[in-house]
Write a structure and sequence with these properties.
By secondary structure, the chain is mainly beta. It is 4% helix and 41% strand. It contains 4 helices and 28 strands.
């Protein structure tokens, strides 16, 4: 599928923006595909199953523009958090599933890849303060005293809500733990051919001097991800050249991504002032309704450079009464409009980025409004910069 056919990333349309790339080198040892750790009804993606959960994200410590990737035995932990706008205190518990390179459960039992308890309660719970929208904030750090992970690799966090005797899936979130076993040098270049003006080629060299590899084609799996996006990840690459010390990956076509425009942005930090891209603000109890100026597709626009935060968001309010952004920052309803003709029924338009979990989320799908002749979405978002 292409951006042109789908138009699924209308808020990250194609042009020539420098991107953030992940180069994931997975050592394929004894962890093959299996279903031993599979949980019934779980999708192995970032997904929020309950509509009353908002601002779901996983960060490295308090670094709000980070991705959920940490080094094994690092002092920096992962912090997973979300808000429940139904307020009150509920019983949420979590588990972690070890996954293989294609994000399916491995054949390892829990006690083989982790130490501690398989299911644990989320104990860090706090209520909102001085906000129009009452909510409860839940937070979890990984690893923690209840659960430690033995191996680097891909993991899926699964959060459940206990409702009486029923256990319901609340959300799932991917994260990675890595070891610097194989040094990698990489660079981004302008590719040759048809993508010369709109593509970015990532070439890299893996140094295996201090790590024994008998058959790199079987023991290594290389995955390249652009801005933490799974839908266009490149995998299945084999070295273009190898010797005793290095594995060189330098394909002209297989390692090239279509570049992107800068992300659209807006700020809801101050609901008393019309900031750039904000058309109007009205309070209709219990929400502030924020109307953004209509956007339009920028696919064929001339690229213009602008510093941004690559699709992330930062929770923040300008109110002097805010002490803790986790509990003192309010929610508002944000109306997003994109002026464009209606697409065929098999095409969809999404608001995309960290606020959608880097997935094409149903909650972030835009619907066509015939009166406006535009696609629109009304999202409940915590105040901040998006």
């Amino acid at each position: 599928m292409t951006f042109q056919n789908n138009l699924r990333t209308i808020y990250n349309s194609v042009a020539r923006k420098p991107q953030v790339y992940f180069l994931v080198i997975l050592l394929i040892l004894c962890f093959q595909s299996g279903q031993v750790s599979a949980q019934t009804g779980v999708e192995y993606i970032n997904k929020v199953y309950m509509k009353h959960l908002h601002s779901v994200r996983m960060l490295v410590g308090e670094w709000e523009t980070s991705y959920p990737v940490i080094e094994m035995n690092s002092e920096a932990g992962l912090v997973f958090s979300f808000d429940d706008i139904e307020a009150g205190q509920k019983d949420f518990e979590y588990t972690v599933i070890h996954c293989n390179s294609d994000w399916k459960p491995s054949n390892l039992q829990f006690f083989e890849y982790a130490e501690g308890f398989e299911f644990n309660s989320i104990r860090e719970i706090s209520s909102s303060r001085n906000t129009f929208v009452a909510y409860t904030h839940y937070s979890l750090q990984l690893p923690n005293e209840d659960l430690q992970l033995k191996y680097s690799g891909n993991y899926l966090l699964v959060v459940y809500q206990h409702d009486g005797n029923e256990q319901k899936i609340a959300c799932t979130w991917r994260f990675m733990m890595y070891e610097n076993a194989l040094p990698v040098t990489a660079g981004v270049y302008q590719p040759a051919g048809s993508l010369y003006d709109t593509g970015q080629k990532l070439s890299f060299v893996i140094n295996r001097t201090n790590y024994s590899l008998f058959d790199p084609s079987r023991e290594l799996k290389v995955v390249i991800m652009q801005n933490n996006q799974s839908y266009n990840a490149i995998s299945g690459l084999q070295p273009t050249f190898m010797n005793n010390n290095e594995l060189v990956y330098d394909y002209e076509d297989k390692q090239t991504f279509t570049a992107s425009n800068e992300y659209r942005y807006f700020s809801t930090r101050n609901v008393k002032v019309l900031s750039e891209r904000v058309k109007s603000i009205q309070f209709k109890n219990p929400y502030y309704y924020i109307e953004l100026f209509p956007e339009s597709p920028a696919y064929f626009d001339k690229y213009s450079s602008r510093e941004d935060i690559n699709g992330h968001y930062v929770i923040k309010s300008d109110l002097h009464t805010v002490i803790d952004e986790n509990t003192d920052v309010d929610y508002s309803m944000v109306h997003i409009v994109c002026n464009m003709s209606r697409l065929p029924d098999n095409n969809k338009v999404y608001v995309f980025g960290a606020l959608s979990g880097w997935e094409f989320s149903d909650a972030c799908e835009m619907k066509y409004n015939a009166d406006l002749k535009a696609y629109e979405s009304l999202l409940m978002l915590k105040q901040g910069y998006y």
